[in-house]
């Protein structure tokens, strides 16, 4: 029997426990993974993260493993294909936002504006310690505003904060969680 003390939400299912124990809050530096996670957080809006985790592999298959160059080239036929894919969240606006997000990602990269460097620039490349109960902060509002200025959609302060938690820009593990002090990257 597992007696590790975790953040309360991580005990809702084995899938959530595994996600908590292996991914959530670990500083991510890969630009493509950062972008994929931001896009998936956008799809999560109005749903539970567990739904997105259950569908993550279907999302990856549907969106060419979140290869920004491939996704940026998606057109009308691809949108219709995705709208018919029961394995993902079929929301046209979110699908279109992901395609546009890929185009923005590529434009940034082509200008020498690395997406990973951009993401981490708000905290000078270091994770910040969260309080464990916020749903948005002044920092998530600032990042949200900059993402929107660049043309990203589904990047409000609450979605951005959830993304910051997921990719380790903020460490929001509860003080009694075994992961609180073992997150690398500080």
Automatic annotation (TrEMBL):
It comes from the Bacteria. Zn(2+) binds at residues 7, 20, 173, 177. One of its GO terms (molecular function) is DNA-3-methyladenine glycosylase activity. SUPFAM superfamilies: DNA-glycosylase (SSF48150). It comes from Mesorhizobium kowhaii. This is 3-methyladenine DNA glycosylase. GO terms for biological process: base-excision repair. Keywords: Metal-binding, Zinc. It holds the Pfam family Adenine_glyco. Signal peptide: none annotated.
């Amino acid at each position: 029997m597992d007696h590790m003390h975790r953040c309360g939400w991580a005990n809702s299912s084995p899938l959530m426990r595994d996600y908590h124990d292996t991914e959530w809050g670990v500083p991510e530096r890969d630009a493509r993974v950062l972008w994929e996670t931001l896009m998936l957080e956008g799809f999560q809006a109005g749903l539970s993260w567990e739904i997105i985790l259950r569908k993550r592999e279907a999302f990856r298959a549907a969106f060419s493993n979140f290869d920004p160059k491939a996704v940026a080239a998606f057109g009308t036929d691809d949108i219709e294909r995705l709208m018919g894919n029961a394995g993902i969240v079929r929301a046209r606006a979110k699908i279109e936002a992901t395609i546009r997000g890929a185009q923005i990602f590529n434009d940034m990269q082509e200008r020498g504006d690395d997406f990973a460097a951009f993401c981490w620039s708000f905290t000078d490349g270091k994770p910040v310690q969260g309080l464990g109960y916020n749903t948005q902060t002044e920092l998530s509002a600032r990042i949200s505003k900059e993402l929107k200025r660049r043309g990203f959609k589904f990047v409000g302060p609450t979605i951005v904060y959830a993304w910051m938690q997921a990719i380790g820009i903020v460490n929001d593990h509860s003080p009694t969680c075994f992961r609180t002090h073992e997150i690398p990257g500080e």
